[in-house]
TrEMBL record:
<dbReference type="Pfam" id="PF00294">
    <property type="entry name" value="PfkB"/>
</dbReference>
<protein>
    <recommendedName>
        <fullName>Carbohydrate kinase PfkB domain-containing protein</fullName>
    </recommendedName>
</protein>
<dbReference type="InterPro" id="IPR029056">
    <property type="entry name" value="Ribokinase-like"/>
</dbReference>
<dbReference type="InterPro" id="IPR011611">
    <property type="entry name" value="PfkB_dom"/>
</dbReference>
<feature type="domain" description="Carbohydrate kinase PfkB">
    <location>
        <begin position="123"/>
        <end position="285"/>
    </location>
</feature>
Length: 300
């Protein structure tokens, strides 16, 4: 993919991945009082869609497995996710998060109901019309074969972005979420123009990103570094883009921030073709998101 010049033309975004229901309990950001159970929509697809719905000229479609229990939860957390596929039997992927300040303990349920949605002719047409395709799985059940089949439907000039985090997760029999070895990376990374992950997702994240960028020189690798900004790698050449420091603390305050960053990065990079500029723009938008979440939390 060769990003085009800045444009105000309409932009079609298709997100392939998972949606989920989050059940969040615990304390956050210096407030030690126990919090009531909060049952809401989660997933990168949710936060990316919410961010892009506010961008003029951008339309979003989502292809993700879900059950009938997802729809009433989604209706309580607008904007609605524009799902292309219908619900299937069984419960929606459920993440139970217990948050204590900067520590989050997590369990996952209904993973057996979250297989990738088969690429039908209808979904193939949506992918063929997309300017940006963002793959954002929450589980490591998106095989290289499935991804290659889906991305084969896209135009050569479409920007294809992967959010790696879900491919680094395993779910044990008791629902505990842990880290897995991304053994299939060599078959997955070259399918994308940009891959994004956090330095909290992998040990020696910057070293891994550098190696991936050297091995797959057509792919730009971006590592987000929380308050330290982000670093991009192209063919082993790194560019660090700092972020303005924020006072907000706690895991709960930044849930979804990485997804907002990725959404802004995709749109900005497709427009400018300048990864440094796109990261800087994504930092600005993410900071506004975090500030907005703080205001909403104080008003609740």
């Amino acid at each position: 993919m060769t990003p085009g010049p800045p444009t105000t033309d309409a932009c079609s975004v298709v997100i392939i991945g998972h949606v989920c229901i989050d059940e969040n309990t615990g304390t956050d950001s210096g407030d030690n009082a126990p919090q009531r159970l909060r049952r809401t929509v989660g997933s990168p697809a949710f936060f990316i869609n919410r961010q892009l719905q506010a961008v003029a000229g951008v339309t979003v479609s989502v292809i993700a497995p879900y059950g009938g229990d997802f729809l009433p939860v989604m209706s309580a957390a607008p904007p609605a996710i524009p799902l292309l596929n219908p619900a299937t039997p069984g419960g929606t992927l459920l993440y139970r998060n217990h948050i204590d300040g900067d520590v989050r303990r997590q369990q996952c349920f209904h993973a057996e109901n979250a297989d990738p949605v088969p690429v039908t002719a209808t979904y193939a047409r949506a992918l063929a019309a997309a300017d940006i395709v963002i793959v954002a799985p929450l589980l490591a059940n998106f095989t290289p074969e499935y991804l290659a089949t889906a991305l084969a439907e896209t135009r050569p000039d479409a920007l294809k972005m992967l959010l790696v985090q879900g491919l680094l997760r395993r779910v044990d029999d008791d629902g505990t979420v842990g880290q897995r070895d991304f053994a299939e990376y060599a078959d997955v990374i070259p399918l994308f123009d940009v891959v994004v992950f956090s330095d909290e997702d992998l040990q020696k994240a910057l070293t891994v990103a550098d190696e991936w960028s050297r091995d797959f020189f057509r792919t730009t690798v971006v590592v987000t570094q929380n308050r330290n900004g982000a670093t991009s790698f192209d063919g082993g050449v790194s560019v660090h883009v700092p972020a303005e420091p924020l006072e907000r603390q706690g895991v709960g305050s930044v849930i979804g921030a990485g997804d907002v960053f990725s959404a802004a990065l995709a749109v900005s990079y497709r427009g400018s073709g300048d990864i440094r500029d796109a990261i800087g723009r994504a930092h600005e938008i993410t900071a506004r998101f975090i500030d907005g979440e703080l205001v909403a939390a104080l008003a609740a």
